[in-house]
Amino acid sequence: MSLQLLFVTLCFLSVSGNSLSADVGQTITAQYINELVEEYMANHLSALEAKYQSKFESLDKENALLKSGLISLKSAIEVLNHGDPSDEGDRNDTKMITNRPSLLSDDTRSYRVSTSNVQPQVAFQAVLDHTIGILGDYKTIKFNRIDLSLGNDYNANTGVFTCSVPGLYVFHTNIVNIKGKSLELDFLKNGNLFGRAYIGDEDTGRSESASSTAIVQLAVSDTVWLSTNTNHDSGDLLYPPYCYFSGYLLYPYIV
Length: 255
Fold this sequence. Notes:
This protein is of the alpha+beta class.
């Protein structure tokens, strides 16, 4: 019963109570008010119970979904940390890589690349900080100032990079010539050519620059350096400090 009806009832009883004795009127009024209040409270509490019961059921469903998601997340983390035990090929947490393009390898081999450890970091950049004078044939260019060295594989005294981590490497050089001079440099792996950089002898009245990048596969103890060949002018050729030699490990492999 609504509060408005309760109010109307009380007003009616207060008016009609004038024709009754005071004691009888008060007794009837008190009893009726108690009944109305009890009925109202019972209905109100029943409505509240139904309302919050629905909310509790909804929260239970959401909680069940969250628990299911948490279990799935834990399973995914377990697979990432330890591998999927149902996959026979990944029991050692390694991945087989086969059929490498012949451009990137000296022969046809298969490699197992570790995914369980952090990839080793090998990189360097060395700069030529002085003008090089007379260059003979097949002379190593010694980029003598090291700006970056991860792995310490490049030797500034010899100009030679010695591989400590087998894998696929990228090497790059940028050279600037003395005005009007020409020069050709070779990327050599263990003395074998795998890339070349050339800067021409056009008479532009200013120095020119040239860049070259080469990719090569290296095993432990393989060496890489930049060397002149027979195609170069005489006298001062390279202009510092814009000449540099750099390289980095693209990805490692284990034979």
